[in-house]
Design a protein that fits this description.
Layout: H1 13-19, H2 27-36, H3 45-64, H4 74-86, H5 94-106, H6 111-117, H7 121-131, H8 137-141, H9 145-169, E1 182-184, E2 191-193, H10 194-203
Antiparallel strand pairs: 1-2
Helix pairs in contact: 3-4, 3-7, 4-5, 4-6, 9-10
The protein binds zinc ion (ZN).
Length: about 210
């Protein structure tokens, strides 16, 4: 697949990062390969966003400390910033919190500055689909994603029913207890019941 040239004036967060030389434009080739799945197993938009953000953090780290070895895993720093500063997660894993906080303190990094530099999955989706104009080839040939989700949800309910029955029989849950699986929506951050979420993604077209 050929790379599209990207104009310099853009409303795309990721294009701006590349045009400003913060990350090298060659990363587009990597994104194309790993999103299209033409040559390798495709990665999800969330996974691509995470790897991209880790590269960004590496850039900002080197900018601040050009002569210091980072000695830590940028994935840990990225997860920490995301959970503590962006998701406002109530249940941050204590080990992650400790590790992330130690990195920030030790290297005197500004967590808010770094957290606000990170790109969101919907920016990545926009960049992949509109700027690079790539689609995941594998998806169209396989069974549709909504169908897969609905089948998996049905299966999950089936296997959850038996321990729930035990809980009900032991008086730990009332007879009208329902199990609902939620998915965090990447655009709004809202927790949606999986069936509602599947409806939402299937309306987006293409899948
Ligand atoms: Zn772009």
């Amino acid at each position: 697949m050929e790379k599209k040239s990207v104009s310099t004036v853009t409303n795309c967060h990721i294009c701006n990062i590349l045009n400003n030389g913060i990350l090298d434009k060659s990363i587009n080739g990597w994104l194309i390969d790993h999103y299209s799945g033409e040559h390798i197993e495709p990665l999800s938009i969330a996974a691509l966003t995470n790897r991209f953000n880790e590269q960004l953090l590496q850039y900002y780290f080197l900018k601040k400390h050009p002569n210091i070895d980072s000695t830590f895993d940028f994935e840990v720093l990225r997860e920490y910033l995301q959970e503590v500063y962006l998701d406002n997660d109530d249940h941050v894993d204590s080990k992650l919190f400790f590790m992330g906080n130690s990195i920030i303190k030790h290297f005197e990094l500004d967590p808010i500055y770094l957290a606000t530099r990170l790109v969101a999955p919907h920016s990545m989706q926009h960049h992949l689909q509109n700027c690079l104009e790539i689609r995941q080839d594998k998806l169209s040939s396989e069974e549709s994603i909504p169908v897969k989700f609905l089948q998996a949800t049905e299966f999950a309910h089936k296997i959850l029913q038996s321990p729930l029955d035990v809980a009900i029989n032991n008086g730990l849950a009332s007879v009208d207890t329902q199990i609902v699986i939620y998915v965090k929506d990447m655009e709004t951050g809202e927790m949606l019941p999986i069936k509602e979420w599947v409806m939402k993604i299937s309306k987006k077209g293409g899948i």
